[in-house]
Write a structure and sequence with these properties.
This protein is mostly helical. The protein is 70% helix and 4% strand. Strands 1-2 form a two-stranded antiparallel sheet.
Length: 209
């Protein structure tokens, strides 16, 4: 493995994990865009699918799977840390600092929803991507992203909205969030397709199965 390949894997993997974390925190705010209710995390989360595809391309399926589970574990640690910090007594000489608990305590449900949706959808994305490559080889690389995301995005949105918002917001709002998620993630998929050409595919993957 060359230094350039290692550098590419590190950069893309870090971007993937960062996007996961930022999406979980941003999802605490429900936006109203174009007549739809949209959780804020939807603005960045869709990029994780193409970033995962890029890791898959340069490092192989086993590394991509490892990245998915590692990101899930880091998000879980984040939720746990936010919870611990929110229940520990604040320094009252600074002030009650109640805003932290109000804003970030609900992240636990969001993170659990995100982790569940992420693992299910991105493992499916991995298998669809792998099947495309096995069938098409180096041809139509844009199709890897388009087809794998077309399968995984609706699944991800359905699982996430069901766990994160059903019962917490009116059903109509939850339904609006689902449709907005699918629409925005679909648009981001189209915008992110060129990213798959930014990394070089390994002739012999690091670990593959």
């Amino acid at each position: 493995m060359t230094r350039q390949t290692l550098r590419t894997i590190v950069i893309v993997a870090v971007c993937y994990v960062a996007a996961q974390i930022l999406a979980d925190v941003a999802s605490l705010r429900i936006l109203f865009i174009g007549g739809f209710s949209v959780d804020g995390g939807t603005l960045i989360y869709p990029f994780t699918f193409t970033l995962r595809d890029m890791v898959h391309k340069v490092a192989g399926v086993m590394v991509a799977r490892t990245l998915i589970f590692t990101a899930a574990a880091i998000n879980l640690v984040m939720a746990g840390l936010f919870y611990i910090v929110s229940i520990l007594p604040p320094d009252l000489t600074v002030g009650p600092q109640a805003e932290f608990s109000v804003v970030l305590s609900p992240v636990i449900r969001i993170v659990l929803a995100s982790i569940t949706a992420e693992i299910i959808s991105e493992l499916i994305d991995t298998e669809v991507y792998k099947a495309w490559v096995q069938r098409m080889g180096q041809r139509y690389q844009w199709g890897r992203v388009l087809v794998s995301n077309s399968v995984s995005v609706p699944i991800d949105s359905a699982v996430f909205v069901a766990i994160a918002f059903l019962g917490a917001v009116p059903f109509a709002v939850a339904l609006s969030i689902f449709f907005a998620n699918v629409l925005i993630k679909g648009l981001v998929t189209l915008l992110s397709i060129p990213g798959i050409y930014l990394v070089k595919e390994q002739e012999v993957p690091l670990i593959d199965a």
